[in-house]
């Protein structure tokens, strides 16, 4: 996979790529994608194109499924939705009983079915004249050319126009969107950041987990799915349907999934969180509810305008008590570290808000600070340079390779580089964590492109804007972080690649 060209050249078309995964029945979930062999983190699992085209809008605009339904409907009315597009949609889950014996047969039981549709799509594009009136438009393949594994009559699937109800169901269960473009690739490709929503069919075969092992993001019209953790042979590749709710307690997550997707989540994280002692669950809920309460939100959004940490003192104390209670309960229960990180995510709002409050300068005055969740002014003398390192570790447990994960590792690097001596192991650790996070999202790119991606991301304020990048206005931190990255980027990539081939 030529990541360098993909992330820097908008004219480069990477085509469709299906990595070491196969489609197969997964008990209780219908079909799912399962690793064919050991897949090391940072390996590409899928590169796919959307059905028709993805719908784009100016950054920040919320694009909802009904917008996509309307756009696809328009494409259909204007003759811009091909028979192959219709078939690609009909191969997807439509809300019926996921394990019914007919559903796999009707909707496709292998990635071969999807490839077959793609091939027809391509042939139709290459031979538009011959195409007329013949199924997908291409001459019927000879028996010898027909892939043996296919069980589905894809031509028949593409024939009838899509009904409104069909389109709605397919979009409701299978669409993916984001309200901004990739924060590294879009600037490198000199593309504006845009909101996007679409259906990328092979991606829609991934089932959900509250602690997924892949990360997905779009570059132009393509959607990339990368292994964001090592995936064992026979293990299911999963994505997360929850958005920000991935950092909510179990009950909230499960009830949203049930309401939106109709299933009871029994992922590893849900099962493990269910089995913890009642005191731990109660501490998670209390911390989450405190941090997301109306009173806390009001304080957090109003007080910082006054640059007044004192106004937040009561909230800080309550949050500190709530997170300490959770830590003590997990310690008393002797929980393993991975489960502790999952539970911290379930109460992430408390850990995060506490870290941000503690980051505010103590003295009130003309500090130039913006809102608590959107500070824009000069860098403060940071209280705890390791706060972002801890937050990054928590986030990686449920959203590896996500924007939040990458952002926090960059923040951790710039702060430790400012706070400690260059030889300090904390700086080396932060450098490694930052490179690892970026490589697991972007794959093993060249040093120059990795560097450019990191720089582009570190210049982006709008998305998180939550904690100001210390180095941004200072220069010194950036230069130091930059030189550290230069030394170790190639090494980190080699380590990751090496780990995969062992
Ligand atoms: C985008 S589709 C995923 C692929 C789908 N399993 C298929 O057979 O095409 C979403 C649907 O898959 C099922 N699903 C996804 N994740 C699941 C999970 N963790 N547990 C149970 N069902 C799940 C649900 O029926 C959900 O509405």
From TrEMBL:
Region of interest (Disordered), residue spans: 123-145
Any single Pfam family the record assigns to this protein: SET
Residues in SET domain copies: 19-242
Gene3D superfamilies: SET domain
Superkingdom per UniProt: Eukaryota
Record-linked PROSITE patterns: SET
Stored SUPFAM superfamilies: SET domain
Name of the protein in its database record: SET domain-containing protein
Species this chain originates from: Chlamydomonas schloesseri
Organism ancestry: Eukaryota, Viridiplantae, Chlorophyta, core chlorophytes, Chlorophyceae
């Amino acid at each position: 996979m030529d990541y360098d060209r993909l992330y820097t050249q908008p004219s480069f078309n990477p085509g469709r790529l299906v990595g070491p995964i196969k489609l197969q029945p997964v008990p209780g979930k219908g079909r799912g994608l399962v690793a064919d062999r050991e897949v090391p983190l940072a390996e590409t699992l899928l590169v796919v194109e959307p059905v028709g085209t993805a719908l784009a809008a100016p950054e920040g605009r919320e694009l909802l499924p009904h917008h996509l339904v309307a756009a696809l409907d328009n494409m259909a009315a204007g003759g811009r939705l091909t028979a192959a597009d219709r078939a690609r949609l009909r191969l997807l889950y439509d809300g019926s009983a996921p394990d019914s014996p007919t559903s796999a047969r009707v909707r496709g039981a292998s990635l071969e079915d999807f490839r077959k549709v793609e091939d027809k799509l391509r042939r139709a594009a290459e031979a538009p004249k011959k195409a007329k009136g013949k199924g997908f438009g291409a001459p019927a393949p000879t028996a010898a050319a027909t892939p043996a594994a296919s069980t589905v009559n894809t031509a028949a699937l593409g024939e009838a126009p899509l009904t409104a109800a069909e389109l709605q169901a397919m979009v409701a269960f299978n669409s993916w969107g984001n309200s901004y473009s990739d924060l590294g690739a879009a600037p490198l490709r000199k593309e504006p950041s845009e909101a996007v929503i679409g259906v990328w069919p092979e991606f829609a075969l991934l089932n959900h987990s509250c602690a997924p092992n892949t990360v997905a993001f779009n570059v132009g019209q393509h959607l990339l799915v990368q292994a964001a953790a090592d995936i064992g042979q026979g293990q299911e590749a999963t994505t997360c349907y929850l958005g920000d709710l991935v950092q909510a307690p179990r009950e909230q997550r499960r009830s949203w999934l049930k309401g939106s997707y109709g299933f009871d989540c029994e992922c590893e994280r849900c099962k493990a969180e269910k089995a913890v002692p009642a005191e731990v669950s109660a501490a998670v809920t209390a911390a989450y509810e405190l941090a997301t309460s109306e009173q806390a939100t009001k304080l957090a959004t109003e007080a910082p305008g006054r640059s007044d940490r004192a106004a937040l003192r009561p909230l800080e104390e309550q949050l500190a008590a709530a997170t300490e209670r959770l830590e003590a309960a997990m310690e008393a229960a002797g929980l393993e570290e991975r489960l502790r990180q999952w539970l911290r995510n379930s109460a992430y709002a408390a850990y995060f808000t506490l870290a941000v409050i503690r980051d505010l300068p103590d003295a009130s005055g003309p500090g130039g600070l913006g809102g608590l969740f959107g500070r824009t002014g000069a860098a403060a003398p940071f209280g705890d340079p390791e706060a972002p390192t801890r937050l990054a570790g928590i986030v990686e447990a449920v959203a590896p390779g996500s924007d939040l994960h990458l952002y926090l590792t960059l923040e951790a690097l710039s702060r430790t580089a400012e706070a400690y001596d260059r030889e300090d192991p904390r700086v080396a650790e932060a450098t490694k964590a930052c490179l690892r996070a970026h490589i697991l999202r972007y794959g093993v790119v060249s040093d120059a492109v990795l560097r450019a991606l990191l720089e582009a991301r570190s210049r982006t304020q709008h998305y998180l804007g939550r904690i100001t990048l210390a180095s941004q206005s200072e220069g010194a931190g950036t230069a130091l972080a930059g030189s550290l990255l230069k030394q170790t980027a190639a090494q980190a990539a080699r380590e990751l690649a090496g780990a995969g081939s062992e």
